[in-house]
Amino acid sequence: MSPRAGQSGPPARTLAFVESPVQLLNVLEWAHLHAGRIAAGAQEAPGAPDAEGAQGAQGAGTGGADPAAAARPGGSDPATAFLPGQAAVPVPALPAPAPPAPAALGAVPPQSRRAAVRRALGRRAPGDRAPAAGADLTVVVLAPTDPMTRGQLRRMADLAREDGHRVRWEEARGGASAPFQTIGGLAGVLRRADRIVMGDPFSRYVQLLLTITRAKDLVVVDDGTATMEFVAQLARGERLVRWHRKGGRPGARDLLFAPVSSSARRRLTPNARRRVEVFSSMPVSEIPDGVTVTANGFAWTRARFGPPTVTAGADMVGTSLVETGVVDGERYLEAVRALAKAHGATRYFAHRREHPDKLRRLAAETGLEIVRPELPLELIARRGPVGRTILSFPSTVVHTLPLALAGTGVRVAVCDIDPAWLTDTASPRAQGFLSGVTGTARDVHRLAAVSLA
After folding, report:
1. In the sheet that 291-295 helps form, which strands lie side by side, from edge to edge?
2. pLDDT digits (tens, 9 = 90+) for 87-142
């Protein structure tokens, strides 16, 4: 194991690679769903811990912490620096799992005691069945450089450890030599893993790692609206390209990386020796032959947080469509102002990739209170307080928030993107894709595009 992992113990059967807090959230949702199926169908021997209990000792250490955070006073992250008028949503303290009481082992024979100790340490005792899906999970964080994303990832990593999973934090972008160190340090565990869970099949990092693994099971968990495009491209046998870049000419790096991308696409195509699962809350219409699609109902989120206090006002959800070059910045500012005025919104939950300068302008020109959440919005909204109406432009949350907030009475309303708001460099597919995101959303109220003066 890499010294940066900070973890010891047996090799994990399941490795999950994440680069964003939303991906890690959906890995936890996937693990929760599979653990529930195991608990419902398994006949455990008396005294044997369940999958989560066996992992508790593995996740109790201090490993996997963000080393850059340790160097800052108080372990703080730039992501917690809020703009004037912003409200920080505190993250509750997460207690460490309690160790097993010694008396619990004293009344059993020595051989059983040794077996129980092995299980408590996350190791299999003789005769134990191999762990099923969701068990023996190690989350590998391929840390990005964006401070806001890093901050949310660190807090999501705390939740993963609280659930008993191991977390391995990799400074995958920490300099010119970082990719070689990361890939070299992961090569051994990749070859031994039976199952790979990934949050972003479009990631060049993940595609490169896929060329190393021999895993028989591959699982793609939600990375938002990109999941819809991934499944469609896989079904059509197309090269893997993010939707907002599709239609443009491939750059030099794209051409250089093309063989790796083609290899990743082949590995993500199921065959007699390899199973592929897509775990998603997004609508999937074109399902490739042999791919299993499992619905993500946000059961872990609802069990872990809330229900929230619901206020009488309205909240607005930000989007990074300006930052990705799809929507014109001035048009977006005008649309936010008009939408907030029409519906009485008072708070604006910023997307983690929204630029601080843009947020300052929004605060100054709309009067909205800008909130930079420390966790994915599904968790923040579920914990509350939250407005009775949540306004959004086309994005992942129009699919995920109705699931996370089921039964709370909160209404999610989505505003269409007017074609006039798109930039000259936006992908030719942008308008159709964004309309599809809105049109396929369930349990949302659809608003017409706001009229700009």
Report:
1. 166-170, 137-142, 14-18, 195-198, 217-221, 275-280, 291-295
2. 433 333 333 334 434 333 334 444 444 444 444 444 444 444 444 444 589 999 99
